[in-house]
């Protein structure tokens, strides 16, 4: 029996395969998704706008620095922009869980979720 979160995780996994050409680590993806809490069910907060600099700054501060414990520097925004580019500028539905999952992998910070 599947629930809404499992359905979303399946959707995120499909995006990781289709947009990033990666086989998703389902354990990590599930932990990243759970870490986002109820925001994944909100149409607005479950997505990342790749064209909104304020939003990208929030991803950097709240996720990369606070959650992953990275030090601020140009590499952080470069990482975010590379993920947004790979996701596809034309892709309007950039799921926050997918962006965070890919960023955790990009910065080799999967251990934060162990």
Describe, in short, the structure shown.
The protein is mainly α and 114 residues long.
What does this structure look like?
With 114 residues, the protein is mainly α. The chain has one domain: Jann4075-like (Recoverin, domain 1), CATH 1.10.238. Helix content is 59%, strand content 0%. It has five helices and no strands. Helix 4 (74-87) crosses helix 5 (96-106). The protein is globular and about 40 Å long. It starts with a helix and ends in an 8-residue tail after the last helix.
Which key phrases capture this entry?
single chain, 114 residues, mainly alpha, Recoverin, domain 1, 5 helices, 0% strand
List the helices and strands in order: HHHHH
Identify the overall geometry. Answer: globular
Give the CATH class.
Mainly Alpha
**How many extended strands?**
0
Sheet/helix structural class: mainly alpha
Give the helix proportion (percent range): 55-70%
Low-confidence stretches: none
The total tally of domains equals 1
Assess the beta-strand content as a share of residues: under 5%
Number of helices: 5
Termini separation: 26 Å
Gyration radius, in Å: 13 Å
Largest sheet: none
- CATH fold call: Recoverin, domain 1
> Judging by the overall fold, what is the CATH architecture?
Orthogonal Bundle
CATH homologous superfamily grouping: Jann4075-like
Kindly report the oligomeric state of this protein: single chain
Task: Report the average pLDDT across residues.
Answer: 95
